[in-house]
Amino acid sequence: MSPRWNPNPDVRTGRHVVYNLHVHLVFVTKYRRKAFTDAMLTRTEEIMRDVCTDFEAELKQFNGEQDHVHLLVHYPPKVQLSKLVNSLKGVSSRRLRQEYSTHVRRYLWGGHFWSGSYFAGSCGGAPLTVVKQYIENQQRPTG
Q1: What is the pTM for the complete model shown?
Q2: Could you tell me which of 116, 118, 27, 24 has the C-alpha nearest to residue 75?
Q3: Is there a domain that residue 43 lies in?
Q4: pLDDT tens per residue, range 99-115
Q5: Is there a domain that residue 5 lies in?
Q6: How far is CA 126 from CA 18, 101, 114, 135, in A?
Q7: CATH code of the domain covering residue 62
Q8: Is residue 6, in this structure, part of any structural domain at all?
Q9: How many domains does the chain have?
């Protein structure tokens, strides 16, 4: 290896692959209800970090506002993105409804926490620092 070569920690290797896959995900609460508190966002980040780990992915950045969350996920090519999203939304919905049942019932009903749709954007075009800064600058609710 050349002494000038600086390894990029985001470039990972597999048996027959070298990859650097990042996706920017946005999940919105059902009917855009302003259901999130700061404590719920903190717990949502923990839950989603665990789900990512189960998929051998890494949650690089997380933040949100009262009605949506942003995630920056680094994932291996063997992960089917739709399955990761379904797991992130399903597990977080179930746990948040269990752990914050009284609060969630005030804003959401009918067994749904998240909207059925989501945003997924490849981060190959924009520098990751710009995406990270955008996510960090989300206006988190106080209290």
Answers
A1: 0.85
A2: 24
A3: yes
A4: 999 999 999 988 899 99
A5: no
A6: 20, 38, 27, 13
A7: 3.30.70.1290
A8: no
A9: 1
